[in-house]
Structures are given as C-alpha cells and as structure tokens.
C-alpha cells in the first residue's frame, strides 16, 4: 500500500528563556481559564472512557465451545497504544497486522480525538457495515484497508462523506455494482481494490464512472474483452490489476494497441506486454 505523504511536520518551538516574566507575564482571564479547563476535562474523560473499555474487554471471554470471543481482542495493548499515539499527535495511522479487529472496537474509538488519523489497516478479524460506518466518521480518513470483512453496499455508502479518502481496499467484501455507484460521491478516490462474489462483468460500467481513478485492482471479477474496453475508458487510469478475469488474447491485443503505456498485472504477475515489466 502506498504510504501517504508526511503532511504533519512540526515546526513550532518553545524557548523557555523567552517567556515574559514579572509584570509582562500574560494573564489569563477567568473565562479563558474555565473554557480551557472544560476542554482538558472533556479530552481526559473521552480518552479515559475508551481506555477503561479496553481494559474491561481484555478479560478472557470463552463460550461453550471454548473458543475465545473475537471481541476479546479489544484489550490488546497494541490497539490501545496505537490509539493513544494518534490522540497524542505522535502518529496518524492505525495499522493492525495481528490484532483481530471487530465492529465493537471501531465503534468505541474516540472519534472526536482522532482528527489527525488518516490511515486504518485491519488485516485480522471481521469488520461489518457497522464498523465501517464508525470509521466513516473520521474526518481525516485517507486510506482504508479491511481484509476478511464482508462489507456490503450499505457499508460502502457510508463513505460518501469521507472527502479525503483516496485509497479503498476491500479484498473480501460483498459489494455489488450498486455499492460501486455510491463511490462516485467519494471524489478524492484514486486507488480502488475490490474482491466480491457479487461483482460481474457488468460492474465495469459502474467502475468506469469513477472518473478520478488512477489505479484499479479487481479480484475474482470475470471481466471480459468488452469489460476491459469499458475500464480502459477511465481518463486517468495508469495501473490495472485483474485476477481471475476472462479477457482473451484479442482483448489484450486491443488494450496494448490503444493504451500501450498502461501498467497491467494479471493474476498477480506482470502481463508479458506490460511496458513496466522490467522497471520494478
């Protein structure tokens, strides 16, 4: 996944020796002190509530089968630590490779304190539409990857308010062409990776309406020669990955004749005629 540019460089510096002293020292008004105190208390309360819920959910919860409840992952120290780092301004990402993420964990996030969060990656656990709806409330969300998560059209529709979202990766979702149509309102979207048993060749028509796309990866979608031509109509497309497609040699001939610079992968490997075959 492409790392976002670092736009959070800290340039401010505090020089203790330069602070006013004596009669020149700044005095806070009673009203200003009260407002500041309220803000601090609110932040402490919200973060405290979040950490308390994480601590409570760390208890080993087992059912009659002896299998641990997926929600018991909420108490994973890495989860709470990463959230705390974002709240403190030390990070802009939540990256979970081993922590099993669930809807409950995402719904408990202190969204109002995560204004700097731009990237969420969950490679373990199961997130449904409810969890995605919670993530869609993050004001600065730019990149989102949810593996093993059966997101449907309703969940994708919740992303329409994410004005900064430019990368969406849902490799095991349940999205149909209807869900793709709702992504037209996510105008910053440039990178899309989807895998869904509900997507057929007709989905190419809906995808072709996402005019801002530069990179597209479809997993298990039976794209035909006709569908390939439809996808190639995307005005800014420069990278196309297709897994388990139904494009024939005639279809590829057409593509490389009309779009010779397009970077193409088929079934996780460079196409033999990919112009970037030996460059990376």
Write a compact overview of the structure shown:
The protein is of the alpha/beta class and 280 residues long. It has 9 helices and 9 strands. α9 (249-258) links the parallel β7 (239-243) and β8 (263-266).
Largest sheet: 9 strands, mixed
How far apart the termini lie comes to 15 Å
The assembly state of the depicted protein chains is single chain
Average of the residue pLDDT scores = 80
Which residues sit in consecutive blocks of at least 5 with pLDDT less than 50? Answer: 1-26, 34-75
Q: Major sheet: order of its strands?
A: 1-2-3-4-5-6-7-8-9
- Structure classification: alpha/beta
Tally of DSSP β-strands: 9
* General form: elongated
Radius of gyration: 23 Å
Strand proportion: 15-25%
Kindly state the percentage of residues in helix: 25-40%
Number of helices: 9
Order of helices and strands: HHEHEHEHEHEHEHEHEE
What would you say this structure looks like, in words?
With 280 residues, this protein is an alpha/beta fold. The chain contains 9 helices and 9 strands. It has helices at 30-56, 77-87, 103-107, 129-135, 153-157, 177-182, 203-207, 225-231, 249-258, and strands at 93-102, 119-126, 143-146, 167-170, 191-195, 215-219, 239-243, 263-266, 269-270. It has a 9-stranded mixed sheet with strand order 1-2-3-4-5-6-7-8-9. The longest helix has 27 residues, at 30-56. Residues 1-26 and 34-75 have low confidence and may be disordered.
Write the layout of secondary structure elements.
Elements lengths: L29 H27 L20 H11 L5 E10 H5 L11 E8 L2 H7 L7 E4 L6 H5 L9 E4 L6 H6 L8 E5 L7 H5 L7 E5 L5 H7 L7 E5 L5 H10 L4 E4 L2 E2 L10
């Amino acid at each position: 996944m492409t790392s976002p540019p670092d736009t959070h460089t800290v340039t401010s510096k505090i020089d203790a020796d330069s602070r006013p002293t004596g009669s020149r020292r700044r005095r806070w008004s009673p009203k200003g002190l009260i407002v500041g105190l309220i803000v601090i208390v609110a932040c402490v309360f919200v973060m405290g509530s979040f950490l308390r819920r994480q601590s409570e959910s760390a208890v080993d919860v087992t059912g009659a089968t002896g299998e641990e409840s997926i929600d018991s992952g909420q108490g994973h120290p890495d989860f709470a630590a990463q959230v705390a780092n974002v709240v403190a301004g030390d990070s802009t990402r939540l990256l979970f490779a081993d922590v099993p993420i669930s809807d409950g964990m995402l719904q408990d996030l202190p969204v109002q304190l995560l204004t700097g969060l731009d990237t969420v990656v969950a490679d373990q656990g199961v997130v449904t539409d409810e969890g995605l709806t919670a993530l869609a409330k993050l004001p600065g969300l730019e990149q989102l990857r949810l593996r093993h998560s059966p997101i449907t059209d309703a969940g994708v529709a919740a992303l329409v308010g994410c004005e900064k979202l430019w990368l969406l990766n849902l490799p095991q979702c349940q999205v149909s062409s209807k869900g793709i149509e709702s992504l037209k309102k996510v105008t910053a979207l440039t990178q899309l990776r989807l895998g869904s048993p509900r997507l057929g060749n007709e989905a190419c028509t809906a995808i072709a309406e996402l005019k801002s796309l530069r990179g597209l990866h479809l997993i298990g979608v039976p794209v035909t020669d006709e569908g390939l031509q439809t996808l190639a109509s995307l005005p800014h497309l420069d990278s196309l990955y297709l897994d388990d497609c139904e494009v024939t040699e005639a279809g590829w001939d057409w593509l490389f004749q009309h779009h010779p610079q397009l970077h193409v992968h088929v079934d996780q490997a460079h196409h033999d005629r990919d112009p970037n075959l030996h460059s990376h």
